[in-house]
C-alpha cells in the first residue's frame, strides 16, 4: 500500500516535470482524476511523452500508442500498470 | 477555364531512379525503392527507408564539385534533379528567372554531423555552420545553376515542395517572373528518422497506404523540380503540362495530426478546383498524400468523400515506391502526375489488400491505362499545412 | 488598376522597448536576447507550457498586430523565419546524439519544424486560410511580404493578410556564429556598432508582425509600394540595382526622403550600404538600426516597423540617424538589407 502511494507521488512529480506543467504542484493532481480530456487536459503529444517516461523510468516498452489511452487514464491506472509490468 | 501555367521541364531523383525515365520504369513495373538504410548512419537499421543508393561523395563527383564544397545532401540531390529539368527545358537563365525550393530540414544532415565539433569550438568544417538554414541548401543549388535573381525557400514541412510549385505559378501569373524553377528537396537524416520514430508513426514494414492494416510511414529522400515559363516566353517550345489550380489551407486542428473529417484537406482541394475553374467531375485521377499513417489516410479519405461524394475518381499513393520524402514529396508527385498525363497511365498504390473499415475506399492497385486530362495531387504536413495542385495536359 | 496595399497594423518584440526609443538599452555582449512581454496575456497556460521563445514571440506579436486592426481571422498567415524553432531543433539534436538515438521525447521534434510558428498562430486563431512559411536566410520576411502583396493583388476577395518574421537565439547554434566569423571576435557595446572597423556583427532575436490590407483606414501607417529580392548583387552594381527597382515603382532616387540601411558593422560587407550612402542617397537622411537590435535573419521586421512609425509620425528618432541630413518632407522611405553579401532586399513605403 505504501509502495503504491510512493509510486503515485513519484509519477505526479515526473509528469509535472516531463510535461512542463509549470504552474502545478503534485497536490493539484487527484489520483483518480482523468489525465486527458476534461480532467488535467493532456493531449496526444503528452501521451507520447508519457510512453517515453514509462520506458525510461520503468523499462516498459509500449509499441502501440492506441494502447496507451487506457493506461494513462489516471494516476491510479498508470501506477497499477507500472506495478504489474515494471522491469526496473 | 483559365490557361494555367506552362511546365517546360522536369527533373527528379528518388529511391526508384535518378532521372525521369528510370522513375517511370520503376513506377510502370511496380518496383518499390524501399530498403534498409546503408548510407544513413543510424542505429535504427531495422526501419525501412526510401534511400538513394549513392554516397555524398559520388553525388558530388557527378556534379563535378570541388573537394571542399559545402553542399548538403539535399543540395546535392536538388542540383541533380534541377540539372535534368534544365536540360529538358533549355530555359534561359537571367535576372527574370527565379528559383523557389521547398525543404523541411535543409542541411540538418550537416548540422547533426558537425554539431559536437562546433560545440567544442572546432572550425575545420565551419563552412557548414549555416547549413541549418533551409535557405543555405537552396542557395547552393541556385549557385550551381547560376541563378542570382529571385531565390527563395518555403519550409512548410511535408507540403513545402507543393507550396513552392504553387508560389512559382502565382508569380508567373502575376508577371513577377518570366521563368521560375520550382520544387523541393529533402534527404534522409537521423534528425527526421528519429523524429518520426519518436512520434511512433514509422512502420517496420513496407508502408500500406490506405489499407485497413496500415501502421505508419516509411521515410524517404529525393528531389524534384519543374521549370515554369510564362506563355509569351514559350516560342513554340514543347509543354509537358500545365498547372491549372492550387489551393493552400490550414487544418488549424492540431500541431501534427490532421482533423478526423479532413477539413483542411477538403478546403485545399476545393480551392484548387476553384482556381482551375473546373468541377470535381473533371478530375480523372488523384495522386494522394497517402503516407500510410493511421491518421493521415483516414483524414484524407474522409476529405475525398466529402468533396467527391459517391464518385471518387481513381486514386493512389506513390509513397510505397519512394517513401515519404517530406518537402520533396509534393514535387516528386508533381513529376509523377506529369508522367501520368503524358503516358495516360495511373501508377499503382503498392501493398494494398484491404479497404479501411471506416470508408471502404479502394485505390488503384495495378498500372491502369486511362484517358487523363486533369490530375489532382495532395500534400499535407505538420502544422496543419494542406496543399492541393491540379495538373492538366497542355491541350486540355 | 492595381489596388494599393496598406500597412494597417504593426508590432515588434525586440531587444529594445518600443516606449523608450530615444534612450535605447545598452548591451555589452555580442549575443543579446529580446525583451519578453507577458506571454500569458496572449496564450493559454496549457498551450504555453511547451512553447519555445520563437513560438511565444510569434503568437504574441501577431496578436498585437491583429488587435490593432480589430482583425479576428486574417485571410492569410505568412511567416518568415531564417532558422525557425532553433531551440527545439537544438534540444532534439542534442538528445539524439547524447542518447544514441534512444528514448527521444517527441515534443521538441514536433516543434522544430520551421512552420511551427505559422501553424501555431493558425491553431491559436482557428484560422483555416492560406498559411505558408518562408525560410530564406535574411530574405525570409521579405519573401513573406512579397507573397502577402501577391495575395492581396491577385484577388479582390482577400482583404487582410497577417505577415511577419520571427527568429530566436539558442544556446549552442547561435554561438556557432562566432566560429565562422559572423560575430565580432570580442564583445562590444551594441550602441558603439558604427565605431567598429572589424569583421562580424552582433546578434539578437525578435518577432515583427504586420497587417497588410487593400483598405486604407484611420490607423494606416504606410502604403506598401513594392518589394524586390535578389540573391546576389555585385558590389559595384548596387546603385544601378536600386535604380532599376525605383524605376519599376515609378519613382526616382531624388524623391526618396530617407533610406533605412541594414548596416551591421561588418567591414567585409558594409560597402554595399556605403556605396549607396556615398552615391545615390548622399544627400538624404540615412538611417541604421542594427546597433539597437542586432542582426538576425528577420531583423528587417524592425526596420519595417520603424519606417511605419516614421511615416505615420513624420518624425525620425535621432537614435537611428547615420548622418546629419534632415528631410524636406517624409513621403517615401526605402529599406535596403543584405547579409554576408547575399539575400538582398529592397522595400519601398510611402506615407498615406
TrEMBL record, chain A:
InterPro entries, per the entry: ACP-like_sf, PP-bd_ACP, Ppantetheine_attach_site
Annotated SUPFAM superfamilies: ACP-like
Spans through the membrane: none
PROSITE patterns from the UniProt entry: CARRIER (PS50075), PHOSPHOPANTETHEINE (PS00012)
Stretches assigned to the Carrier domain: 5-86
Record key words, sorted: Phosphopantetheine, Phosphoprotein
The keyword NADP appears for this protein: no
Protein's UniProt name: Acyl carrier protein
Organism, as annotated: Salegentibacter holothuriorum
Species lineage: Bacteria, Pseudomonadati, Bacteroidota, Flavobacteriia, Flavobacteriales
From TrEMBL, chain B:
Pfam family membership, one: ketoacyl-synt
UniProt key word Transferase: yes
A molecular-function term among this protein's GO annotations: 3-oxoacyl-[acyl-carrier-protein] synthase activity
Cellular-component GO terms for this entry: cytosol
Domain Ketosynthase family 3 (KS3): 2-393
Biological processes annotated in GO: fatty acid biosynthetic process
CDD domains: KAS_I_II
Entry-linked InterPro entries: Beta-ketoacyl_synthase (IPR000794), Ketoacyl_synth_AS (IPR018201), Ketoacyl_synth_C (IPR014031), Ketoacyl_synth_N (IPR014030), PKS_Beta-ketoAc_synthase_dom (IPR020841), Thiolase-like (IPR016039)
Annotated keywords: Transferase
Gene3D superfamilies membership: 3.40.47.10
Presence of the UniProt keyword Hydrolase in the record: no
Family assignment from sequence similarity: Belongs to the thiolase-like superfamily. Beta-ketoacyl-ACP synthases family.
Protein name as it appears in the record: 3-oxoacyl-[acyl-carrier-protein] synthase-1
Organism taxonomic ancestry: Bacteria, Pseudomonadati, Bacteroidota, Flavobacteriia, Flavobacteriales
Automatic annotation (TrEMBL), chain C:
Gene3D superfamilies: 3.40.47.10
Molecular functions per Gene Ontology: acyltransferase activity
UniProt cross-references to InterPro entries, sorted A to Z: Ketoacyl_synth_N, Thiolase-like
Pfam families: Ketoacyl-synt_2 (PF13723)
Source taxon at top rank: Bacteria
Boundaries of every Beta-ketoacyl synthase-like N-terminal domain copy: 40-168
Protein's name according to its UniProt entry: Beta-ketoacyl synthase, N-terminal domain
